[in-house]
Each structure stands twice: as C-alpha cells, then as structure tokens.
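Q: What would this complex look like in 3D?
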Amino acid sequence: MSIDLPSIRTRLEDGVLFATLDAGSLNLLGVDLVRDLVSLVDMLYTDPGDIRVVVIDSASPDYFCAHVDLTAVPQYTAEAAKAGGPGDASLGMFLYKLARVPVITIAKVRGRARGGGNELALACDMIFASREKAVFGQFESGTGALPGAGGVQHLARRLGRTRAIEAIVSADDFDADTAERYGWINRALPDTELDGFVERLAKRIAGFPPEGVRVAKRAVNDLTLASPAHIRSDAATFQSLIARPESRERLDHLGARGLQTPGGLERDLGKAVGDFPEDNEDS
Amino acid sequence: MSIDLPSIRTRLEDGVLFATLDAGSLNLLGVDLVRDLVSLVDMLYTDPGDIRVVVIDSASPDYFCAHVDLTAVPQYTAEAAKAGGPGDASLGMFLYKLARVPVITIAKVRGRARGGGNELALACDMIFASREKAVFGQFESGTGALPGAGGVQHLARRLGRTRAIEAIVSADDFDADTAERYGWINRALPDTELDGFVERLAKRIAGFPPEGVRVAKRAVNDLTLASPAHIRSDAATFQSLIARPESRERLDHLGARGLQTPGGLERDLGKAVGDFPEDNEDS
Amino acid sequence: MSIDLPSIRTRLEDGVLFATLDAGSLNLLGVDLVRDLVSLVDMLYTDPGDIRVVVIDSASPDYFCAHVDLTAVPQYTAEAAKAGGPGDASLGMFLYKLARVPVITIAKVRGRARGGGNELALACDMIFASREKAVFGQFESGTGALPGAGGVQHLARRLGRTRAIEAIVSADDFDADTAERYGWINRALPDTELDGFVERLAKRIAGFPPEGVRVAKRAVNDLTLASPAHIRSDAATFQSLIARPESRERLDHLGARGLQTPGGLERDLGKAVGDFPEDNEDS
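A: Here is my prediction, written as structure tokens for the whole assembly.
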C-alpha cells in the first residue's frame, strides 16, 4: 500500500491505517476531501496491502467534518461519481461503497459531525466519540432538505422510528452521550481515554485472521445496510429539495451569517437553523 | 383549519396544534375520544391549514390514556372504521393512518399510557415523557389477549426481540427511564422541563420548510412501519383472543375490582393483572 | 411432564421449569449438554404439561456456558442434528428451534456466556444478567471464525450495524451494563436482586392465559428472527472457517495455554484471543 493524499494524513502501524482528515478547519466534504476519500477507498478495495483496519479522525479540533461544501455540490458530486459505476453519481453511493469496504473502518469523532460529515461517520463500521467534544447532527431539515447520503437509512435502521424522525426533522445537535443512548454511535468515551481505546481496539482486530473478520462484516452488512435503490432515491430527493426556493432562501440566509466559515454560526449550526426570521427577510 | 371537538381541547400557536385529550379522568379510548381523534386526523389529511406539528397530551394528571374502553369495543371500533376504507374496521388501522399523517406528531406523556393508550403514543412520531409521572405498558397478555392496535409491531421493531417479548408478555408497567433505556420512547425528561422542551422542539420544526420534513417522515415510515397486513392480522387476533372464556373471566374479575373506574386498580393495573387468584374464582 | 436429564437439573414450580445447566465447571456445549438441551426442547414441543415458562441458569458460579466444546464439534453437532429435520445438522438450527418453542424462555446469566454460550442465551426470549458477575462475548473472530449458531443474526438485528460489528469482530468481553446499553440483553440487575426478579417475572407470566402469550411470542418471532436460510449459511461459514489453517493455529495456541480447562485463560478469554504472538509461533 502506498498512498499520498493532499487532504488526508495517513500513518500505517501494525495493520492499522490512521487516516486523519486535514482539509481545513471545517473539514468540509468538498472537492478535495471527496477526491481523496475516493482514492483511499479505491485503494482499500484494490490494493490494501497490510491494512486491516482504518481509523478515521480529524486534524481539526472542533470539526470531525462540518458537512458537505454547499457551494460546490455539483463539483464534489462529480468527484464522488468517480468511485462508482455509471448512474451512481452521488455522495451517498460513494459512502455506501465505503460501508462495504473489505477492511474494518472506525470513526473516531471529536468536534462536530453534521450532515454529510455525520453520514461519513455512519458509513464506518464503528463510531467512538469524545464525550466532551463530539457533536452529531443532521441539520438538513432546517434548510428544507433531508439527509441525502445515507443518513435517513442508517438512522431509521439504527435508532428506530421515533428517534430517527426526531434526529432528522429536529435538525438539532446531539451530544455524544445522547447519541450513545439513541444507538447512533457505539460509545461516548471520556476524551482522555478515546485515543487509547480506539488504538487498542483497532490493533487488536488487525491482529485477527482477516478472512473471518471480512466475512462477519459482510454478514452484518447484508442484514443492516440499505439497498442501493434506497440510497439513490434519497440522493435524488436531496438534490430536488435543495433546488427549491425555500431551501435556497434558508441557505442564503445562513450563508450571509457565516455558514462554511470558521466561527460562531458553524459552531452552533444546530441552533442556527432554528433561528430563521419569520418574515423570511434576511435581517 | 377549524375544528371543534368535544373530547379534545385544541390550541393553534406558531404552526403547532396543541391537542389535549379531555375524555374523563381515565381518557379511555371509547366512542367519544376515538370519534374525535378520527375527526382530527381526517382534518390533518384534508385541511391542515397552518398546522405543521401536533402535540398530543392529556388533561388528566394521572392518565395520558388508560386504554381502550373494554365495555364498548364494537362501538369504538365502529368509530375507528370511519377513518378507513372498507374492511379496515379496527383501532389499529386508524392508528396506522395516524402514524402516516403528513404533519409531525409528538406525544407528551404524563401519567399512564397502557394498552391502546400506549399504542396511541407509539403511533405518534416522537414520544417524550415525564420521568416522574409517566408509565407505559401493554397489559393485554395479563388478560389473555395481545396488543391489537400496533403495539406488537412497533415494539418488536423498536425494542428488538427480547425486550419486545418482555414488554408484551410480562404485561407489566414500565417507568419512563426504563422505557427510554429500552428504546420505547425518545426520552424521559424531568417533569418540570417536559413542557418547555416539547414546545420549543415543536415550534422549531413547525418553522422549517414543510416539504422536506414531510418527505423525511415518509422515508423513515417506509423503513420502519408495519405493513397493513400485519396490522389487520393483529387486530383480528386481538378480537379473537378477547372473546375466549379465559379472557372474559380475567376481564370480569378485573371489572369487579374496579377496572375502568378511577382509583386503585387502574392506577396499578400492571400489578393487578398479575393478581388473578389461582382457583379462578372471584374473591 | 417428566424428564430426567444428567446435565440439567430441573425443578417445576407454579408453571415455571427452573433448568440449571450442570455440565461441569465450564458448562461447555458438548455432547452431554447438547443432548440434554435437545431432549428438553423436544419435551417442550411435544409434552410441556404444566410448563409455561422455562428459566435457564447455571450451576457453575463462573460460567453460564463457556462456549461449545471445540474438541468435539462433529459430536455435539450430531446431537444437535437430532432436534431437526434432514439437512439441519447444526447447533444453530437447534437454537433456532429453541427460539420458537411454544413456551416462554428466560436466560438468567451469571458468569461467562461466550460463543455458543452467548448464542444459547440469545435464543431465549429474555436475558437478565448479574451486573457484577455476567460477561458476554463472541470470541470467534479472534480465532479466525465467526459466530455460527445465530449470534450474527441476533446481534445484527438487535444491536444495529455498528454495535453488532464491534461485538463480533472485536471478539471481546462485554460486561452486563455495556450489554444492556447495547440492547444485547434485557437488563443488568444487581446480583442480589437477580433471582427474585426473574422468579417473580416467570411465575407472573406462567399465571397468564397461555394462548395469548404463545401468540404474542410467535408474532414477535415472525418479525425479528432470522430465516432458516440465514442460520444454515452462518453454520456452513463457521464450519468452513474453523477448518482453515490460521484458525487451527489459533485454537492450538489457545489449547496449549489452557482453553477448555478451568482456570486463567478461560476466565479472560476475551483478552486471551488478542494475545496471539506476532511471529505466529507458540511461545
């Protein structure tokens, strides 16, 4: 395995590839990060070498991955399309491919994982989060859309009907403890214990005979993953909804207040989407 | 939207319809309450006006909704039948229609929600409960029957096999904290925080563009709701079981001790169904 | 009902059969215990008499059931085959039959329930565990295999995708509190309360009219159990994986260090499977 990715720092140790997302302080899923994730996943399918487990975390202390780059939806979608077959041009189908990659993937989450960033975590095989610093959310309903890259599928299957509806249509932030109680993530751990816990677990699994691990993951995936038809449908619905005037208006309003720039609004995006003025005028 | 319902007090505010069940101290699902719930749901399908979210709670401090009126099963079933197509004469099919209503519904539970009352809560899109005052239960197995209006379907899908079997065949009461741990409800909240939490959440969602919320709810419903065939089957099984002699005997015994009258037995109905004398004689 | 089983002590009281596994200090699922479990389940199908509920626990303070007897896989499989039809020669298909038995079964777990022992518990209708003394785990991935007797199916459906993958491919031990949080078991209870809780619950259910209980269990089973095809596939995969050289090597290494003998390695088997030396030489 040999890979050099501009926006993902990698380190291979004892069968574990530590992949640290490093695409700016927000770690937006834009052209750069999607391109590099596509390359990484392609390598894991075609030439994994000694890699048995991949741990994905973030170089940014406040953001695991803020969300997709809403100013470049067609562009990052074009990058995501390079991962798939014809007609599968969506971030959702790329993350679906990630979910089925024949090694084990672990999301280690500090900071915010919202929208596509949360869906990136949900596509991993396990999610461990900092109790103090992790935040999860699908804010799309607050802008007139819905989670378009697997979030609806994963949350409905994992949280059950009422909690999934709350998670999606509330568009709100969920701290790590609540996410654990809801079955959204594996566990919330004290921040000081998170790195050690994940490293030990990853190296442990990397030391097991790989065929059994691969077969077990595939068996669970067969029982729990959505069908591609569901993923394609959600992606199409997302694209259709964000093109509607009321969605453009919400996104423009958030954009004028600092969306996608480091700072206050992004930090509290779950709260911010609830603050749209009733008169529908930017103020 | 204009609606005047004898047994449901309503108030519309900022897109949220606050619907308070007010059908006597037990809030039994009898002719009056079922008739008014059918009218409410019909209005939400055909002429919702500004209503985006409905919050359902109870005017009775001790009962969200005790259960169905066991003295009037044919009568309330006839009312429920008015909600559906031919052949769908069951409370279960009406609650199934409620679960798919194109606005968001939130059950805010204080007091007891048992049997059909619990199934009413389960048919809502979210359930938030008073940690100190809410009680959930499906007591039907204790009387020889089974939950016939969706409870089996919701609990099996939401709680998983072993907890669903416990919830149903134990026929016991579950406090709000246990219900939260089991994934039966969204959350147990301190009683003093419950109203504020639900009102803020409801108004927040009511402020979002409605099309995305509607589509997201439908997508989750498609993945998590039972099929009508399951609902119809459970309803038929319930009708068949409660007609059996051993079920009549249990209900008569409970009736003689105060079933459906405010007071001791109804308060502790979970316990009471376990106290049937072994000699099968009323004592 | 009349049954005399060498490795299972039974006591019938108020409709509850207390069945205490007593097949040595490890309670291995070997020829003796599988033979007697097959007899017990056969009796529950054909001649249950007054039995309405079965409580399964262990005579060994440290082991509910350590796992299958890895030195006698063909032999215990032959015993399990006696429970089923032609072509269903697997422990998994026998436990699948147990899961559908027309009485209620409750696993009361103290000590370790790993591998097939955990799958025995998962096949019961409810699992209550000692908070201080119960340990759950599927250690198979650590030896190159996967849970072959229902574990993949139950855990994937009950824990959701990410927690099921963790439970299986980590091959690690889970204490009762974590198992409860993951939805693996019904509840962890203080050890001093466990016996009383389970006995009261079992006798309560045994006192209800049996037809409703039976129908309710069947309805939940229909929604939550795997299909036989899944069970057969997992059994075949398990048989195939444990025959591979890397699996033999791991099992031989564990065998040389005390696998299947009372003592240190079995007590901490979750840890032990992670300690395979990197040079692949027994040391």
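A: To summarize the key features: Residues 8-208 of chain C form a domain with the 2-enoyl-CoA Hydratase; Chain A, domain 1 fold (CATH 3.90.226.10). The radius of gyration of chain C is 18 Å.
Q: Very helpful, thank you.
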